[in-house]
Amino acid sequence: MKVCIVGAGAIGGFIGTRLAQAGRAQVSALARGATLAALQSSGWRMQTAAGLLQAPAHAAASPAELGVQDLVVLAVKGPALPALAPTLAPLLGPHTLLMPAMNGVPWWFCQSVPGFGDAPLHSVDPGGVVAHALPVSRVLGCVVHASTATPEPGLVLHRMGQGLIVGEAAGGQSERAQAVVDLLAHAGFETTHSANVRHDIWYKLWGNMTMNPVSALTGATMDRILADPLLRNFCSAAMREAAAIGARIGCPIAQSPEDRHQITAKLGAIKTSMLQDVEAGRAIELDALVTAVQEIGQHLGLATPTIDALLGLTRLFGRVRGLYPESSPAVGDLAG
User: Which residue out of 2, 77, 204, 266 is catalytically annotated?
Assistant: First the structure.
């Protein structure tokens, strides 16, 4: 199987290194700048508790240099996807599959939900350019349960977790999804073939849509956020609003916020991906994690006052620091 990793950062490098080392797939990378240079000079590299994993890398800056693939793993930051998606056509043959391994709500998430029609989610796909370039019929949803970082370009630091949940975006199970699940399992991932990957995406989002922005605002690790009663209650209120939305779109949450907090607390002093982005001066992935939830809630006519406050605070925080655009795809507020 020919596999291209688009975006060889913390998650893309995590998946690419294991696949390349396992040897069952021909793995390439679409990268740029210092990451591209590092891959070309040093190959795939990932530091684990067991030592440094390495494998040769075929990396390029242009999709045309890599050609048609069997599987394209999208591991870029959400804000980059609308501009990137139309350029990926050279990677796509008649049977190429797309597997976005990205945070939050993906562009295709509401396309099969009654009442949403084919209109894109403006917060994550303004103008529908992503859906046009990357049709849902090609998509395997993916949820990553792992903690990784990039201490330097081209080098991944793996802290914990090997979990990948994969399933058809349209629901159900399929032979093509099982083939990808088997490939990933052979590479050492703890894989699950999900019949309802939308629910798996929403469940993960329900837990991290608060931890990420609150950590960015405060600079605190997750253990300290949960140890503060006021912040814990604030996160719980936002989670109850998101759970009400999930119940309306076929993604009910059986747990209470307190149940989830107890699970999250076991992870300890973890820096969220958004906090890592803030510390590195990178753009924050706010829209897929929070703005999209607000947009879906407004489409359903559900009030989201806590989520609104979280979005407003984090959006302004990002704008003041140049980490979030002044003109954003936020919906439903007069401030724009």
Answer: 204
